Amino acid sequence: MTLVELPALVDTDAAALLSATTDRSGWPGAAPPRGVVRARDVGDVRDVLAWANATGTSVIARGGGSGLAGAAAGVDGAVVLDLSGLDRILAIDPDEQLARVEPGVITADLDAAAAAHGLMYAPDPGSVSISTIGGNIATNAGGLRGAKYGVTRDHVLALDVVLADGTQVHVGRDTIKGVTGYDLVGLFTGSEGTLGVIVGATVRLLPRPARTATLSAYFSDIETAAHAVSAITRSGARPAVLEIVDGQTLGAIDAVEGTDLRVRGEAFLLVQTDGFGAEEELAVIAAALAPFAALVETATDAAASDRLLFARRRALPALEAIGRPLIEDVAVPRSRLAEAVRRIRAIAEEENVRIFVFGHAGDGNLHPIIVTESEPAGAPIPAAAQRAADRIFALALELGGTITAEHGVGRLKREWAARELGADVHALQTRIRDLFDPRGILNPGSSL
Amino acid sequence: MTLVELPALVDTDAAALLSATTDRSGWPGAAPPRGVVRARDVGDVRDVLAWANATGTSVIARGGGSGLAGAAAGVDGAVVLDLSGLDRILAIDPDEQLARVEPGVITADLDAAAAAHGLMYAPDPGSVSISTIGGNIATNAGGLRGAKYGVTRDHVLALDVVLADGTQVHVGRDTIKGVTGYDLVGLFTGSEGTLGVIVGATVRLLPRPARTATLSAYFSDIETAAHAVSAITRSGARPAVLEIVDGQTLGAIDAVEGTDLRVRGEAFLLVQTDGFGAEEELAVIAAALAPFAALVETATDAAASDRLLFARRRALPALEAIGRPLIEDVAVPRSRLAEAVRRIRAIAEEENVRIFVFGHAGDGNLHPIIVTESEPAGAPIPAAAQRAADRIFALALELGGTITAEHGVGRLKREWAARELGADVHALQTRIRDLFDPRGILNPGSSL
């Protein structure tokens, strides 16, 4: 089969090729791919991979294009395999509390469908309204509720995967537990399209919490907020959401939205508890952070909660409005949060770049956002911004952390991934990749 | 290096060899191994594996010997590598909510050490007082709290592993989240000593729940109890523990303990909720099961909870007292629980064997226990019992379930594991095994 034999599928329109060269990562992109194939069904995926394997053509699987590491960005010579058309929710089973989905389902759509049965799909990456389940699985996406509910991996039971040679396998199972064989579901989850193409998934659903309670707090500086995070950790409570936003980011939101958040403090924490004891659990947290906070507000109804969430939800859009954000995604041990933020600030000063910090404090996961001037799309990352990013990666590793907590390695962080893993483990991982993809057609140049 | 060069380590005493040939699975054992090496430190593990790889000697890693699938049972020609002496808790970090442990730490000891900091190690297999963390990780052990807290895999962050050739690697990380590289922690977890030998682990700890509330209920028959389980699932509550015990098992407990449990009903459910809303959540569950139950008792203090837990806790010991139990471990979709139990009973009648059923209803995980007469240790499994076991495996697969939810494949279920996985996935898994262990020295004859 040649690309010419798949005329209904292949899009070689210049605009389509250009839009497939980037994602939301700030990666400047490369020469456009040779074509975009919009899969209509799983058979198309099998056909494309069998053909690509036979011809040695690179294949880059792509969902919503909302990736933050360049893993789904098309490159010269490759075929981008667009799975966004495989977007059916095949089943929601309230007795089993699971859903069967195609990979192109938008994450928020699945959660909404679950909500109709009193259930939720717990992982909620910031891109939930535009990202696909397949992309979430391919990157092992995290999200705000990760503090209590974990990441995508914790909610995937089974996968249908088309391997590099076009054969299709089903791994995992539809029961909650099961230990027959190695954990291939875990292996494919987070593999960024390098081990196979995900064409179906069975995911867990959980009861929607009976109640939620929300608190926002402002602090005189970010170190004090970080101490409050430690106090919450020690309080015995398990917040569902525990987010941090620094003063610079509050200032950016004020500039864009006309608000006055930054006068309230130089750091902001958002805490949400859920379940039958949500209010009491929030009260425990409020007591724990009271000695540190300058201002605390709580809410138990949806409208008031939404007001408290505002500062967290508008953080990235505000930064996108003032420049071109390069989004980092380090994690550090939670007790090193204050040190991490202090040293990121020093890097910003020394490199003379703007770095804004917010993130999932409950997981030690910070998103330092390096905002440069708004160059035209495709412009390379300015040297100072790249130096600052490299220094942030080095800092995360020095503090015992990771260069990427939830966004992935992609094309942006390959060199640093090898450093984090170390030579022995990197070699072992590469051998696994080679086992699954001996011809090296799956997303070459990305990830490992 | 030869075994003779490690005199301080090698035990070839006949009693030691014999005790290493079995575990708690009922597997009858084979000819004794050639020696038991009691590792004193990680260097010993590296030395033994390097030597075994060079000489083509089989190595069977073993912890507490409490396995339920024969995976750690020594066989002719192999060296059993006993890790129970590597039993130090290296660190409990309440700020990070994690622990660093050697593999021989007894699971209950870790939980107790965590409790001193207001924390818990959530996975609680039935063998918690005799099993080791290393064994729990090697089998991806489950437990009673799995209904809410998941299995061992969900609580392991990083592993130190000695590979087949004696090299040591560190996989995973000490942060809660992280997506650099493939999920090798998941791959090693549940691999039953076939990919490497676990010599260290970083595990998550969680806040010990502020409160727990417990309920026991008796039902006229097990189908009615299964319907109650479905009602609980649909209630919006998330029990931490949801266990089922059938009437035959209640009768066995009565016979051994002198109690009168079975007059209360032909099926028993145990439900525990925890957290700040434990009592309210339990009330929601009590309301959901009320239409089905013949008798309900609740408790919120520890002593009363312990009384309610009695019937579940004494189930296996009672069966061990009346004969020789062959412990099965299937899981089925939760909505098929009633059908599964009904058909297991039919199998018992048709094969004329005694089968007792209890298990983790919240996960659809049933432990049908086939109790035969108490033959001498090492006697083969009677033909009728083996036929009944095979039919139970087939039933689990027919109902869309798995042959092993939490005990593992080991030497008992290899043939059935291949059937469950199917030829393609089994071949893929075997290639992964070969990649990690090209000479085939790690636990040959077990698992895949």
From TrEMBL, chains A, B:
Keywords in alphabetical order: FAD, Flavoprotein, Oxidoreductase
PROSITE patterns according to UniProt: FAD_PCMH (PS51387)
Domain FAD-binding PCMH-type: 29-208
Swiss-Prot/TrEMBL cofactor(s): FAD
Name used for this protein in its record: FAD-linked oxidase C-terminal domain-containing protein
